Amino acid sequence: DSGVTQTPKHLITATGQRVTLRCSPRSGDLSVYWYQQSLDQGLQFLIQYYNGEERAKGNILERFSAQQFPDLHSELNLSSLELGDSALYFCASSVSDTGTQYFGPGTRLLVL
Amino acid sequence: TQLLEQSPQFLSIQEGENLTVYCNSSSVFSSLQWYRQEPGEGPVLLVTVVTGGEVKKLKRLTFQFGDARKDSSLHITAAQPGDTGLYLCAGIKAAGNKLTFGGGTRVLVKP
């Protein structure tokens, strides 16, 4: 158990819908990262927050957005969902903005 | 195109055999990490290599970082069924903490 929690574990929804994925970092960690893992693209970095501020951005679509709240938990919002958005979404956290990342168990999203 | 290319993509061996997984790039990384991921779980960090030419050992696992810090390898000696999983390499560039992952190598060790 990495100490990073993600909810929900599974999510099934329809195209065009919007979902919110939630992540609680390890106690004391200030930085949160979001990754997407799909069969064709592998594991890809989406976005990083550090103490509430966006720190780095990767291959995140405009339909996706994220934020980190004052209690340091983070949410990833996915809107206008497409079939290709079906994937595993992982959250990771680290103590600082350059420290070792610890991954959560992921949320499996299926868009039908 | 993956910035980090892993080979092979899949490896099936018998218990007791050795195996090597390769991670290659045309880019230089400030450090490189190896993770293992099991079904239904997130990747778990095995090792971080930082210095070109560095070799690290973790029980039966040996990790090497290339002299030019562009490639790495993972060698498992006398593999056991518990070594079964998806092995991922990930590189970190000089600026930031964003992980760039390779495509992964799925290892199956049969008893």
Please give a structural write-up.
The complex is a heterodimer of chains A (112) and B (111). With 112 residues, chain A is mainly beta. Chain A contains no helices and eleven strands. Chain A has strands at residues 5-7, 10-13, 19-24, 31-38, 42-50, 53-57, 64-68, 74-78, 87-94, 102-103, 107-111. In chain A, strands 2, 4, 5, 6, 9, 10 and 11 form a seven-stranded mixed β-sheet that branches. Chain A has a four-stranded antiparallel β-sheet with strand order 1-3-8-7, with no helix packed on it. Chain B has no helices and eleven strands. In chain B, strands 2, 4, 5, 9, 10 and 11 form a six-stranded mixed β-sheet that branches. Chain B has a five-stranded antiparallel β-sheet with strand order 1-3-8-7-6, with no helix packed on it. Chain B is globular. Helix content of chain B is 0%, strand content 53%. With 111 residues, chain B is mainly beta. Chain B starts with a strand and ends with a strand. Chain A binds chain B through residues 2, 4, 31, 33, 35, 42-45, 48, 55-56, 58, 90, 92, 94, 97-106, and chain B through 2, 40-45, 48, 88, 90, 96-104.
Short overview:
Chain A has 112 residues and is mostly beta strands. Chain A has strands at residues 5-7, 10-13, 19-24, 31-38, 42-50, 53-57, 64-68, 74-78, 87-94, 102-103, 107-111. Chain A is globular, with a radius of gyration of 13 Å.
Topology, pairings included?
The complex is a heterodimer of chains A (112) and B (111).
Chain A: E1 5-7, E2 10-13, E3 19-24, E4 31-38, E5 42-50, E6 53-57, E7 64-68, E8 74-78, E9 87-94, E10 102-103, E11 107-111
Parallel strand pairs in A: 2-11
Antiparallel strand pairs in A: 1-3, 3-8, 4-5, 4-9, 5-6, 7-8, 9-10, 9-11
Chain B: E1 5-7, E2 10-14, E3 19-24, E4 31-37, E5 44-49, E6 55-58, E7 61-65, E8 71-76, E9 85-92, E10 99-101, E11 105-110
Parallel strand pairs in B: 2-11
Antiparallel strand pairs in B: 1-3, 3-8, 4-5, 4-9, 6-7, 7-8, 9-10, 9-11
